[in-house]
Specification:
- The complex is a heterodimer of chains A (286) and B (372).
- Chain A is an all-alpha fold.
- Chain A contains 11 helices and no strands.
- Chain A has helices at 3-39, 56-61, 65-98, 105-117, 120-138, 145-170, 173-181, 186-214, 218-223, 231-241, 245-285.
- In chain A, helix 3 (65-98) runs parallel beside helix 6 (145-170), helix 3 packs antiparallel against helix 8 and helix 7 (173-181) runs antiparallel to helix 8 (186-214).
- With 372 residues, chain B is α+β, with helices and mostly antiparallel strands.
- Helices cover 23% and strands 33% of the residues of chain B.
- Chain B is built from 8 helices and 20 strands.
- In chain B, the strands form 4 sheets. In chain B, strands 6-7-8-3-9-10 form a 6-stranded mixed beta sheet, sandwiched between helices. Chain B has a 5-stranded antiparallel beta sheet with strand order 13-12-11-14-20.
- Chain B is globular, with a radius of gyration of 25 Å.
- Chain B starts with 15 loop residues before the first strand and ends with a strand.
- Classes of the chains: A mainly alpha (286), B alpha+beta (372).
- Chains A and B meet through helix 7, helix 8 and helix 11 of A and strand 6, helix 2 and helix 4 of B.
Chain lengths: 286, 372
C-alpha cells in the first residue's frame, strides 16, 4: 500500500473518532432528559420501566394539590424576586457606575458581588441561624414565603447588579448630557433616557433572577417553614422518598415550557437583530 | 447702559463674555488657564487647537457640564456659572450627535420643547419647521439608526436649534463625517446658522473647518489662548511661532535683526538676507524668526538681480497634488524650504524635476517677523 492511502485512512479514522466524541458528549448530556420524557408516558408504576403509552400521569398532575400549591408559591416568589432584584440592582448599579468615588464604595461593591461567589449552603445556613435568633428575640419573622423571598432576593440582586452595571457602563454618557442640555432635570434624564437605554438589560436581568428563584432548592430548603413548600422542594422531597412517574411528568412539563421559551426568545432576538442590521445598511446606502 | 447688566459684565458690546476662566482638575492638570474672550452677537466663533489643549473643557463649561475653578461666564448680561445645564439658554450639538436611539427623529427634535412644557400644537409647529429647515420633513418617523451619518448630523442640528437657544455650541461638528461629505456640510451648516441668526461657539481640531466656517478663530494651546482673529488674520499675520506653524504650512527661518528702520528692516539668516517692507518693534541684534508661507514663494532656474529675499537650493522631493505641486528644496545650509507652485498650464516645461538647481524668491511683503 502506498503511504498516501495510509494517511487518508488515518484522517478518516480521526474524523470518525471526533464525531464519536461529540456524539458521546451529547448523549451524556441529553439521553437522561430524553429518557425522563419518554418514561413520563409509560403506564408502568416504576419510573424506569416501559409499560405501554399513557397520559395518566399528566392527568394526575391536575389533581396533585401539593405540586400545584408548590408551583403557585414558586411563581409568586420568583415574580417578587425578579421585580425586587431589578429595582435594587438598578439602584446599586447606578451608584457603582455613576459615582466612581464615595466612602465605602469598595466595600459596597464587594458586598454586592459576594453572594455570587459565596457557596449557597453557607449563605442559607447563616440566614437560617439569623432567622432562628431573630425569632427567639423578636418573635418575628416566621419562616415561610417571606423568608424564602428575602433569601432569593439576596442572590438575585447580585446577578441583576452585575448585568445592569455592565450595560450602564456601556451607555453613551453624552446621551444623558444631551438630555440635560435640552432642559431635562436629573430625574427626567433618568426616566426618559437612561431607563430606556437600560431596557434590554432590565428584561434579561428580570428573566435571569426569575429563573434563579424558580429553580432554587438550597436556599429555599433552609428558609422554608411548614406550609411553604416551593415546587423544587416538593419535587426534591418526593424524589427522596423514591422515584415515581408523576415526577417525570412534572419534569417534562417544565422542560417543554423552558425549551419553548428559549426557542421563542432566540427567534425574536435574531429577527430583531437581522432587521436592525438591514435598516442600518439601508440607511448607509440611501 | 442696560439696567439688568451683571456687575461683572463690561458693556463692550460682547454678547458672551468669558472672563478669566480657569479650570483646574487638580494634580497640576490645568485644562483652561486664565482664558478671556468676548464673542459678539450672531458670530460664529471657533476654538481651534490640538487634542488636550483645553478647548473641549472650555466648551463644556459654557454648556454647564463642568464648573470653572474661577472666573465668570456672562451671556447677555447674565452670569451662567451657577446655573445647571438644564437652565441655561444654550444648546449643544454633540460630536457623537447623542441622538436618543429609542426615540424617532421627530421625538428627538421635540425633546427639548416638551421639557419646557410648551403646548402640543406649538411643539408640533416648531418641530415641523426645524425638520423643514434641515430638509428632513419626510424622515420624522424614522429612528436615528435608520439614517445616514449626514442625516443624523442634521437631526442633531435641528434638535439643538429647536429651543431657539441664545448660544449654540458645536463640538467637532463635522468630525464624524467622511471627507467628501464634510465639505458640502460645512457650507450647509453655516447657511443654516446664518438663517437662524444664532450666536455660535464651535470647537474643532481641523483648521480648514475653522477657517471656512468661523468669523473669528481663537487658537488654543495648553489651556491658553494664543491668538484671536479672523481666519485671514491668523493665517497672514500669526503672532507667534506656534500659531504660524499650527495654521497651514510655513517656512520658519531663524535670524538676527541687522537693520531696524521705521519703514523697513533687514534680517540676516543662514541662507539669505530678508528685506521686510515694514517696521517692527525690536532692537538691532535681537534674535527673530521669519515666517514665509510656501505659496508666497516663486521659483526660477535663473537668479534675480537682487541681494535680498532669494535663496539657492536643489529640488530634493516633489509632491504633485493636481492643482499645485509642493517642492522641497535643500538649501546650502542643509535646511529645507517648502514651496508650493500652482500648475496653471497643462503641459509645461516649468515643472521642475528632482535634483534640479533652482532659485527661490519672494516679495518684501511676504514675510512675517516673529519675535516670540
Amino acid at each position: 500500500m502506498s503511504r498516501l492511502t495510509t494517511a487518508g485512512l488515518m484522517t478518516r479514522l480521526s474524523r470518525l473518532l471526533s464525531l464519536a466524541w461529540l456524539a458521546g458528549g451529547y448523549l451524556f448530556l441529553y439521553l437522561p432528559i430524553a429518557a425522563l420524557v419518554l418514561y413520563s408516558f409509560s403506564a408502568s408504576e416504576l419510573p424506569n420501566t416501559w409499560g405501554g403509552f399513557t397520559l395518566k400521569w399528566y392527568a394526575a398532575l391536575g389533581h396533585d394539590q401539593e405540586l400545584l400549591d408548590g408551583l403557585a408559591l414558586s411563581l409568586k416568589i420568583a415574580f417578587a424576586t425578579a421585580w425586587g432584584s431589578v429595582l435594587i440592582g438598578t439602584a446599586a448599579a447606578w451608584a457603582l457606575v455613576k459615582h466612581p468615588r464615595f466612602r465605602g464604595r469598595t466595600l459596597f461593591s464587594g458586598m454586592v458581588n459576594a453572594p455570587l461567589v459565596m457557596p449557597e449552603v453557607i449563605v442559607g445556613l447563616s440566614l437560617l441561624l439569623m432567622l432562628v435568633s431573630m425569632q427567639r428575640w423578636l418573635g418575628f419573622p416566621e419562616r415561610g414565603a417571606l423568608t424564602i423571598w428575602l433569601g432569593h432576593l439576596l442572590l438575585g440582586l447580585a446577578y441583576a447588579t452585575v448585568v445592569l452595571q455592565a450595560r450602564l457602563k456601556g451607555l453613551n454618557p453624552q446621551l444623558e448630557e444631551a438630555a440635560m442640555d435640552l432642559g431635562a432635570r436629573p430625574g427626567e434624564v433618568f426616566f426618559l433616557v437612561t431607563l430606556p437605554g437600560l431596557a434590554p438589560s432590565l428584561v434579561s436581568a428580570w428573566l435571569l433572577t426569575f429563573t434563579i428563584s424558580l429553580d432554587d432548592v438550597v436556599l429555599s430548603a433552609f428558609l422554608s417553614g411548614p406550609g411553604s413548600t416551593t415546587l423544587p422542594l416538593a419535587i426534591f422531597s418526593r424524589a427522596r422518598l423514591g422515584l415515581s412517574p408523576d415526577i417525570n411528568a412534572v419534569a417534562t412539563v417544565i422542560i417543554s415550557v423552558v425549551a419553548s421559551g428559549v426557542v421563542l426568545a432566540s427567534y425574536l432576538i435574531a429577527r430583531r437583530e437581522r432587521r436592525l442590521a438591514a435598516e442600518i445598511a439601508a440607511a448607509q446606502h440611501a | 447702559m442696560r439696567s439688568n447688566l451683571h456687575p461683572y459684565a463690561q458693556d463692550n458690546g460682547a454678547f458672551l463674555q468669558i472672563q478669566n476662566v480657569v479650570k483646574d482638575f487638580g494634580h497640576g492638570a490645568v485644562a483652561v488657564n486664565h482664558v478671556s474672550l468676548d464673542i459678539r452677537k450672531g458670530e460664529i466663533f471657533a476654538l481651534l487647537g490640538s487634542s488636550g489643549c483645553g478647548k473641549t473643557t472650555l466648551l463644556r463649561m459654557l454648556a454647564g457640564f463642568e464648573t470653572p475653578t474661577s472666573g465668570h461666564i456672562v451671556l447677555n448680561g447674565q452670569d451662567l456659572v451657577s446655573l445647571p445645564p438644564y437652565q441655561r439658554p444654550i444648546n449643544m450639538m454633540f460630536q457623537s450627535y447623542a441622538l436618543f436611539p429609542h426615540l424617532s427623529v421627530w421625538d428627538n427634535v421635540a425633546f427639548g420643547l416638551r421639557r419646557d412644557g410648551l403646548p402640543r400644537e406649538e411643539v408640533a409647529e416648531r418641530v415641523d419647521a426645524m425638520l423643514r429647515l434641515v430638509q428632513l420633513e419626510r424622515y420624522g418617523k424614522r429612528k436615528p439608526h435608520q439614517l445616514s451619518g449626514g442625516q443624523q448630523q442634521r437631526v442633531a442640528l435641528a434638535r439643538s436649534l429647536a429651543k431657539r437657544p441664545q448660544l449654540l455650541l458645536l463640538d467637532e461638528p463635522l468630525g464624524a463625517l467622511d471627507k467628501k461629505l464634510r465639505e458640502a456640510t460645512q457650507i450647509e451648516l453655516v447657511n443654516i446658522i446664518a438663517e437662524v441668526g444664532v450666536t455660535c461657539v464651535m470647537v474643532t481640531h481641523d483648521q480648514e473647518e475653522a477657517m471656512t466656517m468661523a468669523h473669528r478663530i481663537a487658537i488654543m494651546s495648553e489651556g491658553h489662548i494664543l491668538q484671536v482673529g479672523a481666519p485671514h488674520e491668523v493665517y497672514e499675520t500669526p503672532a507667534t511661532r506656534f500659531v504660524a506653524d499650527f495654521i497651514g504650512n510655513v517656512n520658519l527661518m531663524d535670524g538676527v535683526l541687522a537693520l531696524d528702520e521705521p519703514d523697513h528692516v533687514l534680517i540676516r539668516c543662514m541662507d539669505c538676507e530678508h528685506l521686510v517692507g515694514h517696521g517692527i518693534t525690536g532692537t538691532e541684534g535681537m534674535a527673530v524668526a521669519v515666517a514665509v508661507r510656501p505659496e508666497k514663494i516663486s521659483l526660477s532656474r535663473q537668479p534675480l538681480e537682487t541681494p535680498y529675499n532669494q535663496v539657492h537650493g536643489v529640488v530634493r522631493d516633489l509632491a504633485y497634488f493636481g492643482s499645485y505641486t509642493v517642492y522641497h528644496l535643500q538649501l546650502n545650509s542643509g535646511a529645507v524650504l517648502k514651496v508650493s507652485a500652482t500648475n496653471a498650464a497643462r503641459h509645461s516645461d516649468a515643472m521642475l524635476q528632482a535634483g534640479e538647481s533652482v532659485w527661490a524668491h519672494w516679495d518684501e511683503t511676504a514675510q512675517v517677523v516673529l519675535t516670540q
